[in-house]
Amino acid sequence: MTPPVKTASLNPLSLKDRMKVPRQQMPEQLPQVRATNFTEVNLGYSAELARQEALRCLECAKPACTNTCPVGVKVREFIQLIVAGDFLGAAAKIREDNVLPAITGRVCPQEDHCEGGCLVGKKVQSLGIGYLERFVADYEQQHLDFRTIPKSQPTGKKVAIVGSGPSGLTAAGDLVQKGHQVRVFEALHEIGGVLVYGIPEFRLPKQIIREQVDYMRAMGVEFETDVVVGRTVTIDELLEEEGYDAVFIGTGAGAPQFMGIPGEHLNGVYSANEFLTRINLMHAYEFPRYDEPIVDLAGKHVAVIGGGNTALDGIRSALRLGAAKAYVLYRRSEAEMPARAEEIKHARQEGIDFRVLTAPVEFLSDGGGWLKAARCVRMELGEPDSSGRRRPVPIPGSEFDLPLSVAIIAIGTRANPVVQSTTPGLGTNKQGYITADPTTQRTSRKGVFAGGDIVTGSATVILAMGAGRRAAKSLHEYLKTGVW
Ligand SMILES: Cc1cc2nc3c(=O)[nH]c(=O)nc-3n(C[C@H](O)[C@H](O)[C@H](O)COP(=O)(O)OP(=O)(O)OC[C@H]3O[C@@H](n4cnc5c(N)ncnc54)[C@H](O)[C@@H]3O)c2cc1C
Questions:
Q1: The predicted structure's pLDDT at residue 5
Q2: Which atom number of ligand 1 is nearest to the Cα of residue 468?
């Protein structure tokens, strides 16, 4: 155990007493109510709850919470500021390392990072670091005068950021603070990447993303939407004709992946990307007010295939659109599910039916081109595979048919090739992802950096942000020294 700091603490509780304070519950909408609406599930801490929770921090001398955070948020320091009642100070402390605190406070898999490392969690429930981060970020949004955000001394250097997901936004935020002129180019009509087109309103309201983007605008970041780099303009044109000194590519892994089983072409079978993009970005859930229909789900049986955050977002959206039965079909067991622990808990509370160790092998037609059922096989877990997880193995003769009107495929995504195929000399691996040095995020092309899902494959918001940070650091070095 790391010995906690004993001095300079405003926390009135002894270390022993801090361990006795229970973790403060996040107020949330009741499951039966929220299963019928798209408003946020978690309602956020009050100032009182936040102070109570912050009192549980042991103020470790070597804080594992910070060391396990991919962007290195100074957790102990911001929590001490909450204890002191200085919420704006706490927000400023987080912002030293994290330009999107209202977002990470909501969707980061804290159990794998800060809260997973928290010493309190070794004995009782870990400190609610994500909930506290969310609280100060929301407080800042309500109370900070954006005109007071300081601008840095201009360096005269121009940087283009391709893609406005968390990696691009983080790189942009860090670079503008160094005084560089930063412009973000985004293919879609809204800024935010997966944060806007993938994650639904009930987990991450669009307004929160817009506010974080407004903050970045106030810092001096420029944004341009509806620009497909590789089509509208190429990386070479940005560097050679448009006067950019360096480029960061954060284009994500947004191309859908299918299962390759019979019947996947049937009406009613969607990729999770399409299903969620239509709902989130095109407001399909507000049809006919918005002219973007998806299949009417009222009273229908719907299943998602997969066990990650995307799968749960898809099926919980289907439930909110009126599905009578909403299944998760996952080929491994719940222990291997990659989704955030809180999302699994919330989905269960809402009545999602988890069918683990189950995989579709065929989609069956009603004879008129529409999905009627999924033929599934039961699985058991065998030896670990290359991912280290136990391989699912089909049980012979265990096939059964599950009646379904809609199936959503959420088994992962692939790299979109547009930038790679139009940038000569840009190194990629055999799956088409951009190769970049894991420390500097430098690619094979001088002046071109890359990070986030387009380098690693689908990962998480905070890992993409970590890559954006590393890229910003080494890009700044490059602009200062010209050394590649
Ligand atoms: C539905 C869903 C739910 C998720 N939930 C969570 C969660 O709860 N917690 C978590 O940590 N992670 C979650 N993830 C994963 C996480 O969102 C991603 O790992 C993260 O967004 C990757 O960030 P990125 O910056 O690399 O790319 P993205 O967020 O994918 O952003 C890339 C952006 O680049 C744009 N772009 C692509 N090509 C071009 C081009 N040629 N020109 C211009 N712009 C371009 C895209 O339109 C997009 O806006 C989820 C993912 C999905 C799909």
A1: 44
A2: 25
Asked whether 271 lines ligand 1 (CB < 6 A), one says no
C-alpha–C-alpha distance, residues 451 and 244, integer Å: 18
Residue 83 near residue 21 (C-beta atoms within 8 A) = no
Residue with tokens 């006795």, as numbered in its chain: 20
Mutate to test the pocket of ligand 1, among 41, 110, 194, 342 (most ligand atoms within 8 A of CB): 194
107 lines ligand 1 (CB under 6 A): yes
Q: Report the amino acid identity of residue 216.
A: M
Residue nearest to atom 26 of ligand 1 (CA): 452
First vs last C-alpha separation in the chain: 42
Contact 139, 91 (CB under 8 A): yes
Residue with CA closest to ligand 1 atom 5: 309
CA dihedral 392→398→401→404, nearest 10 degrees, is -20
The residue nearest atom 12 of ligand 1, judged by CA position, is 460
Count of other CB atoms within 10 angstroms of residue 334: 14
Q: Name every residue whose Cβ is closer than 8 Å to that of residue 72 and which is 6 or more positions away in sequence.
A: 66, 97
Place of tokens 């000399």: 425
| CB of residue 188 inside a 6 A radius of ligand 1 | yes
Residue with tokens 């978690």: 42
Kindly give the distance from the C-alpha atom of residue 165 to the centroid of ligand 1, in angstroms, as a whole number.
Answer: 5
Cα–Cα dist 10/84, whole Å: 7
Calculate the average pLDDT of the chain: 94
How many CA atoms within 13 Å lie on the side-chain side of 176?
24
Walk along the chain (484 residues) in steps of 10 and give the mean pLDDT of each run. 52 91 96 94 97 96 94 96 96 93 95 93 94 97 84 94 97 96 97 96 95 92 98 97 98 95 97 94 83 84 97 97 96 92 95 97 97 97 85 95 98 94 97 97 98 96 95 97 94
Angle made by CA atoms 122, 128, 130, in degrees to the nearest 5: 120
pTM, two decimal places? 0.92
- Distances from the Cα of 65 to the Cα of 18, 20, 25, 68, 81, angstroms: 17, 20, 20, 5, 16
- Does the beta carbon of 314 lie inside 6 Å of ligand 1? no
**pLDDT score recorded for residue 152:** 86
Ligand 1 atom with the shortest distance to the CA of 459: 19
User: Relative to the CA of 454, which ligand 1 atom is closest?
Assistant: 26
For residues 360 and 374, what is the distance between their CA atoms, to the nearest angstrom? 6
Distance from Cα 11 to the centre of ligand 1, integer Å: 39
Q: How far is the CA of 44 from the centre of ligand 1 (A)?
A: 24
